[in-house]
Amino acid sequence: MWKSAARLLRIAYTVVRFRLDTFIPFNLLPWYARYTVGLVCSIGRESAEKNRAERLRLALESLGPIFVKFGQILSTRRDLLPDDIANELAKLQDRVPPFSGKTAQKIIEKSLGNNIEDVFEAFSVEPLASASIAQVHTATLKTGESVVVKVIRPNIEKTIRQDIGLLYILAHFIAKVSSDGRRLRPVEVVTDYEYTILDELDLAKEAANTGLLQRNFTDSPLLYVPQVYWDYCGRDVMVIERISGIPVADIDALNAANVNMKVLAERGVEIFFTQVFSHSFFHADMHPGNIFVDVSNPELPKYIAIDCAIMGSLDDEDKSYLARNLLAFFKRDYRMVAELHVQSGWVPKGTPVHAFESAIRSVCEPMFAKPLKDISFGQVLLGLFQTARRFNMEVQPQLVLLEKTLLNIEGLGRQLYPDLDLWVTAKPFLERWMSEQVGPRRVLDEVKKQAPEWAGQLPQIPNLVFSALTHLSHQEERMADQTKAINALSKEIKKGRRNMPFKMLGLVSLAAAWITTDPVALNHLATADLLSLGLFFVGLYLLVLKP
Q1: Domain ABC1 atypical kinase-like, which positions (predicted)?
Q2: Low-confidence stretches of the chain (pLDDT beneath 50)
Q3: How confident is the model at residue 525, as a pLDDT?
Q4: What's the rounded Cα separation, in Å, for the pair 54 and 350?
């Protein structure tokens, strides 16, 4: 708790130090806020206003990696920010102040268990680029390959865990006091974000992600992923192939290379949907600092992706639901969109579908029949949020990464080719994917998928058949024995039922013999005694001897 309080004080100090209060529109606040907080913060606002973008960037840098990543996301949303702020925040993508190269060298030697000179033919102490979590240095392996060495910032995990702790406090507070707390599920969102950002601290996982993404796009004309040198990878260090290309955000350089910007933008959309729906494994940190362009063929430019620390994945149910929703959007079938939301449980079962359909239509209809540059996605998002509040639609944490990536793709598309129609580009891909899920190709793919398992079981089939037949034969013998026993028991029961009157008569005879017998007169064998003796033998016969 004390650490969290100290962190809160540091955040407050940063706000004051960099005069971030200048971003608050105090004229829109209630009167009591304007004459208290607003009055205090107004001191020096005019002089501080001149460098607002730089002050915001420096404040985010000073607060650490979580805030830097927030700035990275904002830098891609030029539709939501003034140009001066967007341009300044773009520096956070790969120009965060570096840490000492000597410190990086020590981390590398400790991780690899060797001196720098024993691993690399050449190593640059000066970093090539620096980001929020790590920085990279150029090097040359003993075998001659040109590589980059990625190194985790020292002591960064401590700062991240402190910030995550603050986010949890804020999330629990929102969940308790806000009427939207249950719908927004802030604690689950923070948990998901914690898992994601802590994964970034393990470069061995990033290397594995890079390897899988590389295999998914082997020989692809759309995307190139650099090679990983596995012998030089660990938790704190990763060595990969050094690539050459133009940063995707360098529009002037791309135009100078005569790159077909329309094709480049369309290929970006295709790469995204291929990763999500075909591979179920997508790059979830696609800000411009992680994307380069191979312009060796300007008419068919090829993307180059780096920094695979944050990757997303969707299961089959999520993919199917997402595809059906998007296709319904593209077809303007808002009724289907509303029904899918109800069926999925994202909105309560009792939600009036007609009203929900009408609300979705009012938000989404203006998006169509317009080029991307004419669409105000800020207003669309605001409308969707209002719709969500009205119908108690819950946030789905498993889709947070996907939504973040979609925002990045949209921002990138706006920069590359403002006239790109995202919907027209994506619709054929989704229709093709949906047809593959229900058509003959899907059946063939499932047969191919199961074929190795079936082939492995094939040699065992004769033994399995023999065992089954033997078991069946033994079962038939047991059933025959059981049938005989049941039949015998049935006969005994029927026989018992037939003999029951004779048994009863036998009991009566014995009772009569006992009653009529005079023990004193038995020695004289009177007529009465002979009658009793006769009744005794008759009863004995009926009870014991009669079959």
Answers
A1: 91-340
A2: 44, 46-47, 520-525
A3: 46
A4: 50
Q: Residue 521: its pLDDT value, please?
A: 46
Q: What is the pLDDT of residue 242?
A: 96
- Rounded to whole angstroms, the maximal C-alpha distance in the chain is 146
Q: What homologous superfamily does CATH list for 101-252?
A: Phosphorylase Kinase; domain 1 (3.30.200.20)
| Structural contact between residues 381 and 340, judged by C-beta atoms closer than 8 angstroms | no
Helices (H), ranges, 18-127: 31-34, 37-41, 45-48, 52-63, 65-75, 83-89, 101-112, 116-119
185 Rama sector, left if φ>0, alpha if ψ -120 to 50, beta otherwise: left
Residue 215's φ and ψ, nearest 5 degrees, are -65, -40
By three-state DSSP, how is residue 136 classified?
Answer: strand
DSSP state of 139: E
Number of CB atoms found within 10 A of residue 378's CB = 12
Pick out the residues of the known binding site for ATP: 128-136, 150
Q: Which amino acid is at 422?
A: L
Residues annotated as part of the active site: 285
Query: Is the dihedral angle over the CA atoms 502, 508, 510, 512 positive or is it negative?
Result: negative
The encoded tokens of residue 230 equal: 């596995």
Both tokens assigned to 463: 């033994």
Domain boundaries, the chain: 2-93, 101-252, 253-438, 461-545
